Amino acid sequence: MGAPRYSSGCVGVLAAWVCAACQDPSVARADRPAPEPVAAAAAQPAPVVDAVRFRNVRVFDGTHGALSAPSDVLVRGNKIERISPAASEGAQLGERTIDGAGRTLMPGLIDAHWHAMMAAVPMQVVLTGDLGYLNVLAAREAADTLQRGFTTVRDLGGPVFGLKQAIDEGLVPGPRIYPSGAMITITGGHGDFRRLDELPRTPMTPLSHAEQIGGSAIADGPDEVRRRVREQLMRGASQVKLTAGGGVASPHSPLDVTTFTEAELRAAVEAAASWGTYVTVHAYTPASIQRAIAAGVKCIEHGHLMDAETAQLMKAKGIWLSIQPFLDDEDTAQFSPGSDNRKKQLEVISGTDRAYALARKYGLKTVFGTDVLFSKQLADRQGAQLAKLRRWYTPADLLITATGTAGELLRLSGPRDPYPGKLGVVEEGALADLILVDGDPLTDPELLATPDASFLVIMKDGKIYKDRVAGRE
């Protein structure tokens, strides 16, 4: 490609800008005429908008299974200021009005098990690629995540702190991120992606690529576990994730293996508690779940192979379950048929129906997550995965798992919560993460699977990131 071309007008403006930047404006130059005064703009300035009023909406509040009567919802700044009967208040100066025309206003969705740096990126890029490139891909996906209506994600492993900062500073659009940082594992555990020829590790052995970029952290022994947990908290983790059992995607991690010892898990729990937050663990089997609970872990990720005894223990101890609707369908076809990964995946899938049944039978505190990895196609189906829950839940209950109940889980981060305030609900004083839906998701949860068409307005933190309402005031 040749040098970029500019119009003569652009060149003149650029030259004037450079000259103005280089000289002291208080010193006159005899060889340069004084600049012409800039003419005032003919158009009137846009009115300052410090509030948004959603008028004539039916509210799904994130906690109850029915829509409200026609209502107006006033957002000021980044919070919901007032909810009132429709048209009971006139529009005020400085308000922008969005006519809901009887449509549904609901909380922004929450994915409680997401990997912002890895969801839509091929595995090889994550394991060997440049971190800068990975951040660019992840930023693009973060914008898409927000456009799917997921205004908050709980990130369960990955070097996400830079992306979170860029989103929070408004440099790129994306969801709120509750980061865990590197997922902490043991030698040979889920998250250890080293090749066999990289063993044994010695004090002089360099860290693997996944460890260098902050995707995972290998820790053996309570002291090393404690150190790795503290490193994630130092970086800004809102909660910490350990892999307490085998996993599907890792090359040397059988599902039946129970990884950390109870002493190692307890070291992590104590380190997190010292920072006012909690530990969650990747675990499928009864043995790995029960050992984690004995060590003081507060949340289980997955749990697909649990039994009734384990479910009863979780209920008795008040343990959270963050589970995903893994089924043998188009959303779980990323591994080659007959491969070890695929065999492990099918074993997990075989327990999905029973795990959801046990969660419902014993009334476990359950939240929705997707755990999408290494596939843009699957990431784009994030809302479709939520709609799958109709297999086990009413439409209202499935929505609640991804809104109000998920918001309760986020508050377990205590003082490490990066976004103090209520999320997942539409109520006065809550943070203003809202979706205007063209339809009623309480009767048609498939609306969640088609966000491009179904979600007319998406608001996060009081700012509108999508607006397709025609004829707005």
Characterization of the model:
The chain has 16 helices and 18 strands. The longest helix is centred in the first third of the chain and has 17 residues, at 131-147. The strands form four sheets. Strands 1, 2, 3, 4, 5, 16, 17 and 18 form an eight-stranded mixed β-sheet that branches. Strands 11-12-13-14-15 form a five-stranded parallel β-sheet, with helices on both faces. It has a three-stranded parallel β-sheet with strand order 6-7-8. It folds into two domains: 51-107 and 426-467, Urease, subunit C, domain 1 (Roll); 109-392, Metal-dependent hydrolases (TIM Barrel), CATH 3.20.20.140. 31% of the residues lie in helices and 19% in strands. It is of the alpha/beta class.
Bin the helical content.
25-40%
CATH topology of the largest domain: TIM Barrel
Number of strands: 18
CATH superfamily of the largest domain: Metal-dependent hydrolases
Structure annotation, total helices: 16
* Overall structural domain count: 2
What overall geometry do the principal axes of the alpha carbons give? globular
Strand content: 15-25%
Distance between the termini: 47 Å
Radius of gyration, whole Å: 25 Å
**Which structural category fits the helices and strands?**
alpha/beta
Main beta sheet: strand number and arrangement?
A: 8 strands, mixed
Tell me, rounded to a whole number, the average pLDDT: 90
Low-confidence stretches: 1-46
Per CATH, the class of the largest domain reads: Alpha Beta
CATH architecture of the largest domain: Alpha-Beta Barrel
